[in-house]
Amino acid sequence: MPADPVEVIARAIDRCLLGTLAATSHDYARAVLAALEGEGLVVVPREPSKAMVHAGGAAHDYPSVYMGGPSHNGRRVAKRVWETMILMHEERPR
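Request: output the structure for the sequence above.
Response:
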């Protein structure tokens, strides 16, 4: 089961608070991102970038990588899969 992001973030902030008094908001942000990465979590955009859709489309219709990139359908499927994964994460019980 993945780590609870709230707990990971809270621990990272606590470590900053217990450290130097000169910590800036950027120090906190870097600590939070490092803690999330350490737990195998990432921050991702709600909408995929063009590069993400392209890569997902290429993975969906694999041979297209050798034929100039993914098809329109492959990119559409990749975008739909991404949006569905984000939606399911948002709707999960907390």
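The radius of gyration is 18 Å.
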